[in-house]
Design goal:
The protein has 154 residues and is mainly β. Helix content is 11%, strand content 38%. A hairpin with a 6-residue loop joins β3 and β4. This is Wnt related.
Length: 154
Amino acid sequence: MAIKNHMKTECRCHGLSGSCTQQTCWRKMPTFREVGNRLKEHFDGASKVIAGNDGRSFIPDGETLKPPGKEDIVYSEKTFDYCFPNMTIGSFGTQGRMCNETSKGEEGCEILCCGRGYNTTKVIEEDRCNCQFIYCCDVKCEMCKYERNINTCL
């Protein structure tokens, strides 16, 4: 439904000097990012349900929730907590994972480290810089040192 209900019609004109005497149209899928964003919105609003006695319906698990619609995402069991190791499902948890201190997304330290905090380590790396092309077929570079921070979840 995230793709089917959001298809777009695109058309192209054909004819002499762009006169549009004939038009070709086709249906185009939304971009991967649009589909992903739409699914993420539905995922964030997912409802826990219990199967109804008729075997076809769902009953919300809780009194304050509205019954799920046709396009709502539902689940029947809570997922494991991926913040901590769980070898029965093969999850190593997020302890020791590198994170991005400035990001507010899933790779950001606040979310990825599950609120436990993170360590920051300064490292000095060497990389080529100030490269110059020397006529025919040679490139000369200097080696420069850069200091950067590596953040890892506690």
